[in-house]
Amino acid sequence: MKSLSEKAARNLAAIRKKKPLIHNITNYVVMNYTANALLAMGASPVMAHASNEVEEMVSFAGALVLNIGTLTDDWIASMIKAGKKASESKTPIILDPVGSGATSLRTSAAKRIIRETRVSVIRGNASEILSLRQDDSKTKGVDSIHSVEAATGSAKILAGELESVLAVTGPTDLITDGQQVIRVSNGHPLMGYVTGTGCTATVTIGAFLSVDQNPVSATATGLAFFGLAGEVAAKNASAPGSFMIAMLDALYTITPEELLRGCKFEDCT
Amino acid sequence: MKSLSEKAARNLAAIRKKKPLIHNITNYVVMNYTANALLAMGASPVMAHASNEVEEMVSFAGALVLNIGTLTDDWIASMIKAGKKASESKTPIILDPVGSGATSLRTSAAKRIIRETRVSVIRGNASEILSLRQDDSKTKGVDSIHSVEAATGSAKILAGELESVLAVTGPTDLITDGQQVIRVSNGHPLMGYVTGTGCTATVTIGAFLSVDQNPVSATATGLAFFGLAGEVAAKNASAPGSFMIAMLDALYTITPEELLRGCKFEDCT
Amino acid sequence: MKSLSEKAARNLAAIRKKKPLIHNITNYVVMNYTANALLAMGASPVMAHASNEVEEMVSFAGALVLNIGTLTDDWIASMIKAGKKASESKTPIILDPVGSGATSLRTSAAKRIIRETRVSVIRGNASEILSLRQDDSKTKGVDSIHSVEAATGSAKILAGELESVLAVTGPTDLITDGQQVIRVSNGHPLMGYVTGTGCTATVTIGAFLSVDQNPVSATATGLAFFGLAGEVAAKNASAPGSFMIAMLDALYTITPEELLRGCKFEDCT
User: Fold this and answer.
1) Given its phi and psi angles, is residue A67 left (phi above 0), alpha (psi -120 to 50 degrees) or beta?
2) Confidence (pLDDT) at C139
3) CB–CB of A205/A166 below 8 Å?
4) pLDDT digits over A66-93, tens only?
5) Percent of chain B scored above 70 by pLDDT?
6) Interchain proximity B195–C32, CB inside 8 Å
7) What pLDDT digit, counting tens, does each position of C173-224 carry?
8) Residue A105 scores a pLDDT above 80
């Protein structure tokens, strides 16, 4: 997987050079943190959700992040509108189906976004991802109840059905487009004690998608970078408050060379 | 008050073991910080406010937090809807009447929530709490203009009238159900320089309510834990930015044994 | 510019003494950080946006901050309503036209607020400010594409046209009412890696406006204080996460005397 690590380094360098604009329609809880994460890694975030400006805003963007974490019908409509515009211009879309499976509003919104727009990547925990297939998978709030391992086979099939790259994240992340399967084992347990860690992984993938046209490698390299930031942060912090700040610092300080050496990929195709 | 300190320790251990889901319909300003506080102490936060999902979401929850800090009519309707559902299933509700008394929208919303749902605990500063009784108590924005001391008598009467436990927080916190009166003197002055400290005290009580059926002891022990986190944080930080991060760290690192030794209760019944 | 530095020190001391209430109708991304910044410097923030409470809330306020960062039509209506009420009572209004020029919704909202309310100060980057004049100035998201230098002449003319003090911020900040021109060179490059730095500069000016009736000196001294906080923070932090926390600490710890010595003003009238 040396070539994928090299791509990770190139992608990070490209983000820092190009400062791509990432348009986020996302939940209230993580808006500040994900904007700070994007800035720290070198990208340029914008948050805009009004139905009468999202098409205009997404036309400037290198990627569109759709996150259903604090959803209402108005926001779904704006996500669909922005997503259709992005689909037309082939701007990559990444969907974070936060809490899909927990309520029918969220499950149906996630499915509708997938149906009506051209989603390149979907990132969620195992139960969120599995909820996109069937309605018998109930999540406990936004937490996962399925293991990444159990999800591998289902994810491959589902990726093919949904025609989208799936990123099932957890202690080990699984990335598949239905054929290729890559695992990323970067990360640290303290990431589970910071709200919006998953959402921040998603915007990181968004930034990588804006500089890498291959959604599998963009997703894998983005998750390796994000996980490595967790590892670096854990060297400087041992509790969630200082850890979440150290994460932002690490997204800024990790060099492409450090990322090249730090990626933990496994090809399981 | 040794038995109450022991209960505090047991409650904290129970939260860390059960990881209760706390459903928050709360204000935009504090969503991120209160979610992080709940995660740090061991609970599992979810923020959801859409009228077409709050009933479903609250059905998974161990407690419901209603906070009127950045209110509109839509949000009031969702709070009432979630509150009624929680009342039916006897899921404890805690209300934070942020700014009640400052504007009539907030005062009337707080009163309506109390009237139409089964609120277990109301936490506010003295002027917010007093505003629930009468309209002549104007607050200066969201700050308190009455002392905790002046409020004791009124709080006892009001708790009886509202059939709810009242937590009047300030340098010393007062908890009463109309009969029992407990004071908690944990805390630190720097807490007043972090936005949403009161709101975070409220979600802490929410987590304690989810593991302790007695709303008086749940509230007193939750406030002691939260105040102790402020004391611990102040040992590591002397200005508001680093203090608010150290607070999150302390919510994670304080052990049940440290809480047992650190509680500052006074029974004033 | 010694007298302006002395005014800076007096203004900061006045904020710490009077704890003015600053009413913010602002974007979701920065609500928490700007509230914490206001608290840290000694002011008292309130966030309230409901159309049926903004008039009541602003009647208590020492200044009104209008920030169009995550805008919808409802919010524009509330901003206009609050702004008209503030105009009647001569409560100073400061406008942050976030992303004006990037989308027509934002440009037209900013222009409408300026037209229908009595805005004392407008703070933005060069392209946002220039967008208030003409429609051919497109911004890349919320980032500036024009230099402060290029904007000086235009800003003077525009300030006269809009009858408002303009603060064009960047590496060097430019403040003008159409006649006086002051430059402030406090600040640090890491401020560009924290989301809402501009928005936080705006609320700082809001706090200074609440204690200083001269909008030119209030703006210049507020920006010097805010920039100095960045300089102090950079002594303690070298990456964006720890830097943004150190900024909050510095807003709290900087004394009027330190501000008096630290201001970097230049009169370019």
Assistant:
1) beta
2) 43
3) no
4) 999 999 999 999 999 999 999 999 999 9
5) 93
6) yes
7) 999 999 999 999 999 999 999 999 999 999 999 999 999 999 999 999 999 9
8) yes
| Among C248, C253, C254, the residue to mutate for chain B (most B Cβ within 10 A) | C248
Residue B144 confidence (pLDDT): 52
Whole-number average pLDDT of chain C = 93
Mean pLDDT estimate for chain B: 93
CA dist., res. C203 & res. C183, Å (int): 19
Quote the minimal CA–CA distance from C156 to chain B in Å.
36
Tell me which chain B residues have a C-beta less than 8 angstroms from the C-beta of A67. none
Quote the ipTM score. 0.93
Which stretch of B134-148, B204-218, C248-262 has the lowest confidence by average pLDDT? B134-148
- Which candidate from A21, A50, A252 shows the least CB-CB separation from C71? A50
Three-class SS of chain A: CHHHHHHHHHHHHHHHHHCCEEEEECCCCCHHHHHHHHHHHCCEEEECCCCCCHHHHHCCCCEEEEECCCCCHHHHHHHHHHHHHHHHCCCCEEEECCCECCEHHHHHHHHHHHHHCCCCEEEECHHHHHHCCCCCCCCECCECCCCHHHHHHHHHHHHHHHCCEEEECCCCEEEECCCCEEEECCCCHHHHHCCCHHHHHHHHHHHHHCCCCCHHHHHHHHHHHHHHHHHHHHHHCCCHHHHHHHHHHHHHHCCHHHHHHHCCEEECC
Which CATH architecture best describes the domain B2-267?
3-Layer(aba) Sandwich (3.40)
pLDDT at A154: 80
Beta-carbon separation of A253 and C239 below 8 A: yes
Using a CB–CB cutoff of 8 Å, tell me whether A39 touches chain C. Answer: yes
Cα of A167 to nearest chain B Cα, Å = 22
What residues of chain A lie within 8 A of the CB of C70, using their CB? 31, 47-49
Helices (H) and strands (E) in chain C, counts: 11, 9
CB contact under 8 A, B103 and C48: yes
Please name the residue of chain A whose CA is at the shortest distance from the CA of residue B52.
Answer: A105
User: Which pLDDT score, from 0 to 100, does residue A139 have?
Assistant: 43
Residue A141 reports pLDDT greater than 90: no
A252 and C CB contact within 8 Å: yes
pLDDT score recorded for residue A137: 44
Chains in touch with B (≥3 Cβ pairs < 8 A): A, C
The answer, for B248 touching chain C at a CB cutoff of 8 Å, is no
